[in-house]
Design brief:
The structure is a homotetramer of 195-residue chains. Chain A is an all-alpha fold. The first copy, chain A, is built from 10 helices and no strands. The relative contact order of chain A is 0.11. The interface between C and D is large, with 47 and 47 residues. Chain A binds a DNA duplex (21 and 21 nucleotides) through helix 3.
Chain lengths: 195, 195, 195, 195
DNA sequence: GATGAATGAGTTTTCATTCAT
DNA sequence: CATGAATGAAAACTCATTCAT
């Protein structure tokens, strides 16, 4: 229901009817209406992030880790489209309720990515001249937009199938290529950082 | 005001006070409350997209066009942070009111990007094996996430400065590196610094 | 609990928790919430009034009886401050529930007082020109106000100590004084009753 | 309406209907439901106490002042029985809303009384061995109980007629009877009847 | 007898919208 | 054109009461 009409557009009466209980019953399990959203996020967050962290640990190298993370990310959202819709919708607005939770979740995710990128730099498969703060958003942003598009389309196509082409795009962007030595952009980059 | 507390959290009374008119006066210019948002999007959208299209036309080659587009994109949002906040916030929720507008805007933007990418492929500076539908999101997603992060930070840093590093990430991901010797970006970069 | 937050401000859930039983259990002993107050008044009333009547019987003359009654009155309320608070609070509102009880209690008390006064008149220690209906209220009102003040003060001082000075005030007001023969007021009083 | 069923037992819907306006209109003039009571007390209090102070100033001596005060007190409550009911009802419960107001009003009244009593002691018509704190309550309590009884009776009889007998009771209690030959009250009484 | 989860009627409050001035 | 007082529908939330266990 939240997926269809949004959380704030849903009334307690509707939520209760949907749940097959009386209005008052809602308040036995949730402090107030907002608490429904907070608890939803808390539950889903823990569940999903545990899986993210697990899958990353299993990967041998940075490339494999990133691939597995994004595959899992897309898989989780594809599996539960309603959660995906609510997540995407509420994630963007500045509701003070879930703001902290979102910040925290976002940080966790970005930290995982940053770790992978740094490992990749050590392993020699990612460029050393990366602005880490930017690269993290670049990766997360691309993944989330892919999910957003899938949602807007009504979840009609295979979302996980997007994982590999996307990783390819991301990786070739941050991978080291043999000819990059005479790439002007590298210089520009260097200059910028010295600004 | 919408930026601070969101559109649905703002009351007609507040809006009217802010505008220095009486409550009823609002209804002489807007059909209803929702219409305020609709008209806001219509106005801002036209304004901004005209500029996007203009700037893209001026670019000589695909790389330059993409760079200018993203720079302009970030510049517009940096210039009017309140607009940026409202845009980002309302863009994500599935309010049926502005849904069509957003879809349309999003389509316009993605079409511009797609055109640039296709031109780049013809010019031989972008890979031919790109999944166009995905590349469009990949680019838009990365840009919007960069804006989101800037907003969440309170708009404290120079957003436009993110443009070139971001383009670098995007381009190297979709650029053909065997041809990077005659990289066009160098020129663009140089021109820009002379602005 | 009723003393602290009032009866209508207390919920069944609170009452049950305080009593160490489940909500439903309350309804095994009380018909409904109001019945709790009704039974409380019934219980306390009987208890206290029995004592009032007993103490009055023991007194030899009217003055002694009145003194003992007021002392006992203050003592009972001082002993159980919570009861005092609930009594004073609920006594004044016109809740139809306890209205009859209160009327009855009030009548009982006023009857005791009236009896004492009449006895005093026979004994020759109280004026004969008293408007009995008024004198009863005059006595009860003064006593209750003294209790009210004590409650408002938080029950910090010795309430019973107020008894003797108060009786002194009351008695000298209704006592016969040797010079009262040439008191103009007596005449006025008589006139008034004839109006 | 408040007089009949009490303030907390009245709903906004009822209040609005009684006032001949819509529910929402109430909130244009009152912050919330409680504010209705607060404003009522504020208004009535000022109005009535101004009159109390005025009337006291006009009195020549303590006895006359006390008589006039109590007459006016009873007259005001008799004039507006509904106000009297609400006042008596809400005055006693410990509603935190009007608690301060009541305390303040009560203090004002007691201060007026105390001043009169002190003046009477100076003038030599009141006993010098009075416990002032107690005397104040003794007087206020008796007056309020007389009002309470009148209210409980349904306001069927002449309340102001109780003033003089009551003052007689109070005065003879605190008057010095050796001096009662040149009793001041006689004059007051006479004047009043000539009004 | 005791329990306490579930109920849903009833209440306060908000706020977009209207319309007489 | 502009106003802003009045409206009343709609929503969140409370809590006395019930009843299956």
């Amino acid at each position: 229901m939240f997926a269809n009409q949004g959380f704030y557009e849903s009334t307690i009466a509707q939520i209760a009817r949907e749940a097959g209980v009386a209005d008052g019953t809602i308040y036995l399990y949730f402090k107030n209406k907002d608490d429904i959203l907070v608890q939803f996020f808390e539950f889903k967050t823990k569940q999903v992030f545990d899986r993210f962290q697990k899958i990353v640990k299993k990967g041998d190298n940075a490339v494999e880790k990133l691939t597995q993370l994004i595959r899992r990310h897309l898989k989780e959202f594809e599996k539960d489209q309603n959660m995906a819709v609510v997540y995407q919708a509420e994630t963007r607005r500045n509701s003070p309720l879930v703001k902290d939770q979102i910040r925290q979740m976002s940080k966790m995710y970005l930290d995982i990515v940053a770790e992978i990128v740094e490992q990749g730099q050590v392993e020699g498969c990612f460029r050393k001249d990366l602005y880490l703060g930017l690269v993290k958003r670049y990766i997360l942003g691309a993944v989330e937009e892919v999910i957003s598009t899938w949602i807007r389309s009504g979840g009609k196509y295979d979302l996980v199938a997007m994982a590999d082409p996307l990783v390819d795009l991301l990786i070739r962007g941050i991978g080291i290529y043999e000819l990059s030595a005479n790439n002007f952009l590298g210089d520009v980059q260097t200059k910028k950082q010295g600004e």
